[in-house]
C-alpha cells in the first residue's frame, strides 16, 4: 500500500494538519508549564513575604548570635523555611541553618539589595550552602529607628516536583488529544483521498472514451458531493450525445454503403474526407487502402476526373448546380453532380462529388434506338412490298391471272411475316412485363420433346436433314408450363433447321443434371451441325433483332425475336440458357430447367368452384376445413370472384364456424397442379374448368344462388340457411 503522503492532495492535507497540531502542542505545553511555575512561585513568594512580616514581629531586635540562631531554628521547624536575620551592613545576625558568626556578609545578595532599596526583594538562585535552588524573600523591617532585613528562604523542590507532575500529566493529555485529532485527520484524509481517487479514475475513463453511469454514490450535500452529482449528469449527457453522434455516423455510413452512386467528400484543399465503397469500386481503389487525406489524382489518374476536381474547386455553387456527363475507359459513362459542403454557420468547408454510373442507361438507350430502328426496318420491308404490289393490282393489274395470283401470294407471304413479327413482339412484351402466368405442372420430358419433333419431321425430310432425339432413362419429370416450353424448343429447333445445310443433323438430347445449389435439373440440348456462330456474337444472341448473319437471317424469314423469347421463357422457369458454338462445326444450345419434386404421399386437393366465390363455395370451404382433419387440401375459387357475402358469414357463425377470414379468389390464386377433385356448386350449369388437367375428377352439386333470394331479411336468411344445410350434408357425405 502506498503511503498516504506520496504526491497526494490528501497526504499534503494530513501533513499540514500534523504540523499545525505539533506547533500547537509545543506552544501549549511550553506556555502551560511556564504559567504554572510562575503561578506557584508567585503564591510561594506571597506566603514567604507574609511569614517574613510575622517573623519580624516575633524575633526581638536586640537578639543576635547564638540566641537568635536558636530562635530562628525553632521557628524554621514550625514554618518549614530557612530564616535569616541580616543587618543593614550585610552582617548575618541569625540563621536557622548555620551559625551566624561563621557566615559571610550578605550585603551583596540580590534580594537583600532589592529589599534595602524597595523594602522587599525576591530572588531565585542556587544555594551553595544547601546545594539546590532556593526562593529567597527579604523584608526590610523598621522599628523605632532601627532597621534590619528578615529573609525567608524555601527550597523549590516541591514547586519543581509539582510543575514536573503537571507537565507529565499535560504531556500525556496533549499526546492523547493530538493522537485523537491526528486519527480523525487521518480518517478524513483517507476519505478525502478515496473521493479524489474516484474523481481521478472517473476523469481517466472519460479520457479513454468511457462514459460511466452513476459512478459516484449518493452522499451528503458538501461541495465534492455536488461536484460528483454534476459529473454523473455530465457523463450521462456526454454518453447520450456520443451515442447519438455514433448512431448518426452509423446511419450515414450505412447510407453511403447502400448507395449505388460513388460519393467523394473533399476539404477546401482538395483532400479526401470521405469515400464510400462504391466510389472505390468505380475507380478500382483497394478497400483496405486508407484514402483519407488523399488527392483526386491518387484516386484516379484519368484526365477527365482530374478536370472535374479542378472545376468543382472553382465552381460557384450559389449561382447554379454542377452536373456533367463523362466517359471513362472501357466505355463507362458517369453522370457527375457536385455540391458545397457547409458547416452549422453556413460556411463552405469543402465539396461533395457524386458519381452515378449511367453505363447501363446509355447501353439501354442504344438498345432502344437500335430496337426502334430494327422494328422500323422490319416493318417497312414487308409493308413496302405489300404496298407496291397492291398499287400495281389497283392501278395496272396484269392481264394474266397467273401474274395476279403471284402478286397476291407475295402479299400473303409478307402479311404472314408481319403477323409473326407482331405476335412475337406481343409475346416478348408480355414475358418481359410478367403479364403471362405460367401453369406449372409436372411434365413428361419425352412427351415434350416428341411433340416438338413432330412439328419439324416434314420440314427436316424436305431439307434432307436428320432430326433425332434421345431422352435418358429414369429421367424425372419437368416442372414447367407445357405450352411455353414447347414454344421455347420450337424456336430453337426452327433456328437449327434453318441454318443447318442439307445433309446435316439436328438432335435433341435430354438428361438429368444437378444444379450448383444441389437441386435437381433437366438439361435439354439442341445440337446442330450448321456453320456455327462467331464467338464475339454469342453474348448478344438473345438481344432483340440481333442477327449474327443479317442477310441470311432475313432470307430465311426470321423476325429476330425468337432467341429473346427463348431467354425470357427460360428465366420465367428459373432455368439457365447457354450457347456453345464453333465455326464450321455447329452450335449447341443448352437449356436447364428445374425437375419436378419427387412424388410421395400427399394430401388430396379439393377445389370448390362457382362463379362468384362469395357464398356457396365459401360455405363449402368452411365445412370442409372443419371436417377434413388435415387429410385434404381445401381450396375455393370463382371464375368471376366477388367479395364474401356477409349473410354467408352470419349463417355459418350460427353453427360455430367462422369464415370471416376467408377471401374470395380466382383460379390463378389456386395451385391447380395439386387439385385432384373439382366440385362445381352452380345451379345454372355444370361449370367446366379447362385449365385443369384432364385427369382431375369432376363433381357437380346443383345448388341455387341464395344471394338471388327475394323477400324480407328473414326470408333471405332462411334461403341462406337452406343452402348452408344442403352443403353441410353434401360435405359430410363427401368425407364419410
What does this entry show, briefly?
The chain is of the alpha+beta class and 736 residues long. The protein has helices spanning 9-58, 66-79, 110-118, 157-207, 223-258, 277-282, 296-299, 303-314, 359-395, 401-433, 445-462, 482-499, 550-555, 562-572, 616-627, 646-653, 713-735, and strands spanning 82-86, 92-95, 120-127, 132-143, 146-155, 262-266, 272-275, 322-328, 332-342, 348-357, 441-443, 466-471, 478-480, 505-514, 520-528, 576-582, 586-594, 604-610, 632-638, 677-680, 697-700. A hairpin with a 5-residue loop joins strand 1 (82-86) and strand 2.
Explain this structure to me?
The structure is a single chain. The chain is 47% helix and 20% strand. It has 17 helices and 21 strands. It has a five-stranded antiparallel β-sheet. A hairpin with a 4-residue loop joins strand 3 and strand 4 (132-143).
What is this structure's SSE topology?
Blueprint: H1 9-58, H2 66-79, E1 82-86, E2 92-95, H3 110-118, E3 120-127, E4 132-143, E5 146-155, H4 157-207, H5 223-258, E6 262-266, E7 272-275, H6 277-282, H7 296-299, H8 303-314, E8 322-328, E9 332-342, E10 348-357, H9 359-395, H10 401-433, E11 441-443, H11 445-462, E12 466-471, E13 478-480, H12 482-499, E14 505-514, E15 520-528, H13 550-555, H14 562-572, E16 576-582, E17 586-594, E18 604-610, H15 616-627, E19 632-638, H16 646-653, E20 677-680, E21 697-700, H17 713-735
Parallel strand pairs: 12-14, 18-19, 18-20, 20-21
Antiparallel strand pairs: 1-2, 1-5, 3-4, 4-5, 6-7, 6-10, 8-9, 9-10, 11-13, 14-15, 15-17, 16-17
Amino acid at each position: 500500500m502506498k503511503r498516504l503522503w506520496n504526491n497526494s492532495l490528501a497526504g499534503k492535507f494530513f501533513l499540514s494538519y500534523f504540523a499545525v497540531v505539533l506547533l500547537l502542542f509545543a506552544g501549549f505545553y511550553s506556555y502551560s508549564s511556564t504559567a504554572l511555575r510562575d503561578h506557584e512561585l508567585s503564591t510561594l513568594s506571597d506566603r514567604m513575604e507574609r511569614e517574613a512580616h510575622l517573623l519580624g514581629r516575633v524575633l526581638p531586635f536586640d537578639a543576635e548570635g547564638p540566641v537568635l540562631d536558636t530562635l530562628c531554628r525553632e521557628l524554621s521547624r514550625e514554618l518549614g523555611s530557612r530564616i535569616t536575620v541580616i543587618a543593614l551592613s550585610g552582617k548575618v545576625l541569625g540563621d536557622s541553618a548555620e551559625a551566624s558568626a561563621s557566615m559571610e556578609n550578605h550585603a551583596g545578595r540580590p534580594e537583600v539589595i532589592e529589599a534595602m532599596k524597595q523594602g522587599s526583594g525576591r530572588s531565585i538562585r542556587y544555594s551553595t550552602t544547601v546545594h539546590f535552588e532556593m526562593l529567597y524573600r527579604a523584608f526590610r523591617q523598621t522599628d523605632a529607628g532601627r532597621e534590619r532585613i528578615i529573609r525567608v528562604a524555601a527550597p523549590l523542590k516541591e514547586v519543581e516536583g509539582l510543575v514536573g507532575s503537571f507537565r507529565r500529566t499535560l504531556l500525556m493529555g496533549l499526546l492523547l488529544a493530538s493522537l485523537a485529532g491526528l486519527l480523525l485527520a487521518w480518517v478524513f484524509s483517507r476519505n478525502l483521498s478515496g473521493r479524489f481517487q474516484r474523481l481521478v479514475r472517473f476523469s481517466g475513463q472519460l479520457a479513454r472514451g468511457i462514459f460511466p453511469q452513476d459512478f459516484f454514490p449518493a452522499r451528503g450535500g458538501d461541495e465534492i458531493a455536488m461536484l460528483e452529482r454534476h459529473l454523473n449528469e455530465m457523463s450521462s449527457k456526454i454518453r447520450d450525445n456520443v451515442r447519438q453522434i455514433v448512431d448518426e455516423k452509423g446511419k450515414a455510413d450505412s447510407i453511403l454503403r447502400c448507395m449505388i452512386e460513388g460519393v467523394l467528400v473533399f476539404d477546401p484543399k482538395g483532400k479526401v474526407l470521405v469515400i464510400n465503397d462504391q466510389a472505390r469500386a468505380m475507380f478500382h481503389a483497394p478497400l483496405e487502402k486508407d484514402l483519407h487525406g488523399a488527392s483526386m489524382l491518387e484516386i484516379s489518374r484519368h484526365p477527365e476526373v482530374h478536370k472535374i476536381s479542378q472545376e468543382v474547386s472553382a465552381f460557384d455553387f450559389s449561382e447554379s448546380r454542377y452536373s456533367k456527363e463523362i466517359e471513362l475507359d472501357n466505355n463507362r459513362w458517369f453522370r457527375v453532380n457536385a455540391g458545397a459542403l457547409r458547416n452549422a454557420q453556413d460556411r463552405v468547408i469543402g465539396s461533395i462529388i457524386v458519381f452515378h454510373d449511367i453505363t447501363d442507361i446509355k447501353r439501354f438507350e442504344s438498345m432502344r434506338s437500335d430496337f426502334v430502328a430494327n422494328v422500323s426496318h422490319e416493318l417497312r420491308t414487308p409493308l413496302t412490298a405489300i404496298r407496291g404490289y397492291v398499287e400495281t393490282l389497283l392501278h395496272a393489274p396484269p392481264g394474266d391471272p397467273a401474274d395476279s395470283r403471284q402478286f397476291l401470294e407475295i402479299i400473303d407471304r409478307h402479311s404472314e411475316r408481319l403477323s409473326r413479327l407482331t405476335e412475337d413482339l406481343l409475346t416478348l412484351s408480355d414475358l418481359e412485363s410478367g403479364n403471362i402466368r405460367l401453369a406449372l405442372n409436372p411434365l413428361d420430358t419425352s412427351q415434350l420433346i416428341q411433340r416438338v419433333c413432330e412439328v419439324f419431321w416434314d420440314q427436316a425430310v424436305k431439307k434432307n436433314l436428320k432430326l433425332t432425339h434421345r431422352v435418358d432413362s429414369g429421367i424425372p419429370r419437368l416442372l414447367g408450363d407445357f405450352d411455353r416450353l414447347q414454344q421455347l424448343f420450337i424456336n430453337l429447333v426452327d433456328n437449327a433447321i434453318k441454318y443447318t445445310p442439307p445433309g446435316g443433323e439436328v438432335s435433341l438430347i435430354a438428361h438429368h443434371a444437378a444444379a450448383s445449389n444441389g437441386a435437381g435439373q433437366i438439361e435439354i440440348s439442341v445440337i446442330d451441325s450448321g456453320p456455327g456462330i462467331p464467338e464475339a456474337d454469342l453474348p448478344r444472341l438473345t438481344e432483340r433483332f440481333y442477327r449474327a448473319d443479317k442477310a441470311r437471317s432475313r432470307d430465311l424469314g426470321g423476325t429476330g425475336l425468337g432467341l429473346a423469347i427463348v431467354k425470357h421463357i427460360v428465366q420465367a422457369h428459373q432455368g439457365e440458357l447457354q450457347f456453345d458454338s464453333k465455326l464450321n462445326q455447329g452450335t449447341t444450345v443448352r437449356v436447364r430447367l428445374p425437375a419436378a419434386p419427387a412424388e410421395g404421399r400427399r394430401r388430396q386437393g379439393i377445389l370448390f368452384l362457382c362463379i362468384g366465390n362469395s357464398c356457396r363455395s365459401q360455405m363449402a370451404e368452411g365445412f370442409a376445413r372443419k371436417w377434413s382433419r388435415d387429410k385434404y387440401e381445401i381450396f375455393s375459387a370463382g371464375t368471376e370472384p366477388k367479395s364474401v357475402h356477409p349473410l354467408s358469414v352470419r349463417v355459418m357463425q350460427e353453427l360455430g364456424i367462422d369464415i370471416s377470414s376467408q377471401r374470395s379468389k380466382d383460379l390463378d390464386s389456386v395451385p391447380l397442379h395439386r387439385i385432384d377433385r373439382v366440385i362445381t356448386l352452380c345451379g345454372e350449369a355444370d361449370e367446366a374448368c379447362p385449365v385443369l388437367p384432364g385427369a382431375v375428377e369432376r363433381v357437380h352439386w346443383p345448388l341455387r344462388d341464395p344471394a338471388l333470394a327475394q323477400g324480407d331479411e328473414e326470408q333471405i336468411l332462411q334461403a341462406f340457411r337452406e343452402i348452408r344445410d344442403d352443403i353441410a350434408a353434401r360435405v359430410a357425405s363427401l368425407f364419410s
